[in-house]
Amino acid sequence: MAIRFGPSGNSDSFYAQGYKxxxxxxxxxxxxxxxxxxxxxxxxxxxxEGTAREIGAEAARHGLSMSVHAPYYINFASPxxxxxxxxxxxxxxxxxxxxxxxxxxxVFHPGSCAKxxxxxxxxxxxxxxxxxxxxxxxxxPGITICPETMGKVNQLGTVEEVVALCRVDERYLPTxxxxxxxxxxxxxxxxxEDYRAVLDCIENGLGYERLKSMHVHFSRIxxxxxxxxxxxxxxxxxxxxxxxxxxxxxxxxxxxPVIICESKGTMAEDAVTMQQIYQRLLAEQGxxxxxxxxxxxxxxxx
Length: 302
Ligand SMILES: [Zn+2]
Fold this sequence. Notes:
There is one protein chain. The chain contains twelve helices and twelve strands. The chain is of the alpha/beta class. The chain has a single domain, classed as Alpha-Beta Barrel (TIM Barrel), CATH 3.20.20.150. The chain has a four-stranded parallel beta sheet with strand order 1-12-9-8. A four-stranded parallel beta sheet has the order 2-3-4-6. Helix 7 runs parallel beside helix 9 and helix 11 (244-252) crosses helix 12 (267-294). The radius of gyration is 19 Å and the shape is globular. It binds zinc ion.
């Protein structure tokens, strides 16, 4: 695997240019130099098998890896067993659609702890993920399930909670939504060290390999005291977070995540911006390494 950048869904500019269907999106995305595409079932799984297979074939033709976002109404933290069971079925249907796309990752929101303690919410979700391992993952052995860090304070999904969920099974990878982490923490991500703390938490809990191949969502998000309010674009710089410090760490730690941009309307354009930032830093880093190799006297100061 190599690092990949891409959009969640289709940019406003895609439609403004006269395109109407997602089957036209993979070529459009690839022409921007991007290599990933996330398809959202946030509001429901309505795609037909035929359409999904057409989109998947286009994605394969243009070198995009595909992921899907499972419905937002999944709630594995719920004390209601039927509600959790329904969530497992939504993941199963998301996995089925993912298999039509020929994709590899299902992203989902763990659930709400609005009415119960965080501890009880986490226990419910851990039990649901155990069951998910034995059912859906058994039926779709090639897929990876990616619980996401959440932006609202009353949602299950701190970085620590997502690490705990991923420890249920090696086939779970964290989706780190840095916009969510920042919103929930009232602007917690500013310095490189702030980002490093997030990456350290994942590495300590899940190991380097899973940190290396994690799933990432990145967008600027407005927040209130309750956390996430709405997604913004890279034009909006009031709330953050900013990609540069994370990109520095990705280069330093040689990480190869799939980075999906969820900007409002400019997801492909902002994904391109992130890729450019990463490539610039990588080139600078490569330049430094080459200088080092040319040295005849090693000062030991590097
Ligand atoms: Zn999400």
